[in-house]
Amino acid sequence: MDCDRVWTNARLATLTPDGPGLGIVEQGVVAARDGGIVYAGPAADAPAFQAAETLDCDGRWITPGLVDPHTHLIHGGDRAHEFELRLAGATYEEIARAGGGIASTVKATRALDEDGLVATALPRLDALIAEGTTTVEVKSGYGLSLEYERRTLRAARRLGDIRPVSIRTTLLAAHALPPEFAGDADGYIDLICREIIPVLAAEGLIDAVDAFCENIGFTAAQTRRVFETARAHGLPVKLHAEQLSNQHGAALAADFDALSCDHLEYLDAVGIAAMAKGGTVATLLPGAFYFVRETRLPPIEALRAAGVRMALATDCNPGTSPLTSLLLTMNMAATLFRMTVDECLAGVTREAARALGQLDQVGTLEAGKRCDLAIWDIERPAELVYRMGFNPLHARVWRGR
Fold first, then answer.
1. pLDDT digits 0-9 by tens, 47-69
2. Cα separations in angstroms, 382 against 22, 113, 393
3. Considering just the CA atoms, what is the radius of gyration of the chain in Å?
4. Which one in 45, 327, 330, 378 has a CA-CA gap of 20 to 30 Å to 283?
């Protein structure tokens, strides 16, 4: 078999859904051609390769490249002062209602041009890449007008031109009320549905549409209007759901075949059943849970029992999860949410890809998928979840390079 590159003498965690656990292959080989995997499996079953380059992994582990399915990488400024306020006892809701929170980031984001947004996001993206991340979802939501949301999404697309990483863009215009629509949430939803989604979809800047359905965000009825508009333009939906209260957003999103519902600390049995029926992924965000010192855990055991797939993400954002490490995210999911090693690793590979509608492209080591790999200096996969503040990445491969 002709190929560009072969990695030999490796241990594989293929993450294929038909394999037990992580789909481990103790003596494995991965071969790539034209940026895609042409073989991933036991060396004993591999065909003879005619490769331009052969790399001996010396017994290292290969996993799929990591996938971060929920970030807010593009933004201006930070919210370190609000962190101090929370340490002094202020709640997230109190800060938001006093003009802080998302509104303060909107002001800082609007003050930057596209080049400035790219420049401020690159260090955050580079931190993810340095730990083996090969696919990243980037949300808008700090512009909150056609002009500023377009600028955010254009900056996000440019990240994928500047760095060897796959970027998926999500429109989160329904994140908060912009100052010019204070007290007029329905009017702002009108703008999103009449202008922002149609124009930016036509410009090819949107891969999915998200909303913040919450007591300090948008109602279920307003979210439904956003989703109906997204569907009319052929766009899949996602939802910030049940983070601070139960607004029954998860059940609503599942009715629209949502790719994922994210956060979910207040998710109830009705929402879980709807997600299970609709095949909607639960994207869990332990960084936000930790950072805002939440006490109500997402219903992990009930999600397991219902067969709902669970992804993990950094939720990298300036206010509630200034986190740029999927490795630490896995450790938090294990220690705070009691997720297993297998669930954590699947959560940042296979299930994260599923949460982006990209499982046909990435997330497992299988012939026909992109050759996105992370090669690790570890003795067992549990080390990727167990360690804190330690990066055992040996090499990262994106599309075979």
1. 999 999 999 999 999 999 999 99
2. 11, 43, 14
3. 21
4. 378
